[in-house]
Amino acid sequence: MNNFRKDRNYLLKYSLMSGIVFLFINSALLIIRGGHLSFHINIELAPLALLSILFCGLPSSMLHNCAHGNWKPKMMNTFLGEIFGTVMLYGFKGFKLGHMFHHKFPDDPDYDVHPSKGYHFLQFLVSPIKDTLAVIERVYFEYFGDNESSRRNIFWQKIFFNISIALRFSFWLLLLGPSLFVFFYLPIYILNIFVFAHINYAAHIVNQDGNSEVVNLNHNLYYRIVNVLSMGGYFHKSHHLKPQCLNPAKAIIDDNTPYVTFIHEKKEVITKRLEKRHLRLVKAQYL
Ligand SMILES: [Zn+2]
Ligand SMILES: [Zn+2]
Fold first, then answer.
1. Which ligand is in closest contact with the Cα of 68?
2. Distance 200 CA to ligand 1 centre (A)
3. 23-40: b (≥16 Cβ within 10 Å) or e
4. What is the pLDDT along the chain (287 residues), one digit of tens a residue?
5. Which ligand has an atom closest to residue 259 CA?
6. Which of 95, 145, 194, 206 holds its CA 20 to 30 A away from the CA of 57?
7. Ligand 1 center to residue 149 CA distance, Å?
8. How far is the centre of ligand 2, averaged over its atoms, from the C-alpha of 263 (Å)?
9. CA of residue 258 relative to chain centroid, distance
10. Ligand positioned closest to the Cα atom of 199
11. Rounded to an integer, what distance in angstroms lies between the CA atom of residue 23 and that of residue 219?
């Protein structure tokens, strides 16, 4: 966060540098592959897609721990962060910055990169990158002023961010070839997005008072399995209370005191269906 505050070109330089690096790597891969792209898909590799279930929680849980600097030695966080940020396509530094906002301002509609806002799950699923960019833009204007130079900077940040995503995407295609890309990389990527969107969606609830609260979830088979595959992903209350814990399932916290993250001045209007879901989750939390 400090680097972002000190350097107005922090994210612009990161996206630009990532773009140059992947342009170079992709060109090298293209040369190694004899300058031609094969689009032949070997259907016999289709069963590999089943492996994606085993790895569905890995990329984001590794990346997430890198954002918190939980690996030792410290430089491993940058190294692994860049690798798993490449798997997730959006890189490491922007994710880390957005995630620090999530911890500093959990459920704040203006500063959290994924407040629930009464979204349905599908809306929540497609909103993280858009909401992260919106928060970064808002904070950027607060730090550096809402002026022409800031707007130009934001404009180029978004352009180079999108280019770097496209280059990371083509990197995996060039590295793995079309069959592994389709039957191994894409299923892991898509499942991982679903798994972590649901973790953030289900563990940040609106409680009976209309305020936001973070809960731990481990009360059914699905949550238990995903908690194993994602290094305690649904132990989200424990994670917010002890973010330096590599696996929050192992963190010892006071589980009986509700962890309210945001008191909404104007309480969220929640639909009957959402209310039922939230109440069910709160109840499950205290079983
Ligand atoms: Zn959270
Ligand atoms: Zn975190």
1. 2
2. 6
3. eebbeeeeeeeeeeeeee
4. 778 888 999 999 999 999 999 999 999 999 998 877 777 889 999 999 998 889 989 999 999 999 999 999 999 999 999 999 999 999 999 999 999 999 998 988 888 887 766 778 887 787 778 888 899 999 999 999 999 999 999 999 999 999 999 999 999 999 999 999 999 999 999 999 999 999 999 999 988 888 889 999 999 999 999 999 999 999 999 999 999 999 999 998 888 889 988 887 654 444 555 555 555 554 454 33
5. 1
6. 206
7. 33
8. 20
9. 25
10. 1
11. 46
Distance 40 CA to ligand 2 centre (A): 40
3 state DSSP class of 75: helix
Contacts of 268 (CB under 8 A, 6+ apart): 117, 118, 206, 210
Element (H, E) at 59: helix 58-67
Please tell me the distance from the alpha carbon of residue 137 to that of residue 67, in angstroms, as a whole number: 20
Inter-residue contact 54 to 187 (CB < 8 Å):
no
Query: What pLDDT does 195 receive?
Result: 94
CA-nearest of 206, 246, 249, 205 to 226 is 249
* Measured distance CA(111)–CA(115) in Å, rounded: 9
Query: How many Å lie between the centroid of ligand 1 and the Cα of residue 237?
Result: 8
In angstroms, what is the span from residue 243 Cα to ligand 2's centroid?
A: 6
42 CA from centroid of ligand 1 (Å): 40
Cis peptide before 109 (omega within 30 of 0): no
Ligand nearest to the CA of 102: 1
Give me ligand 2 centre to Cα 223, in Å: 18
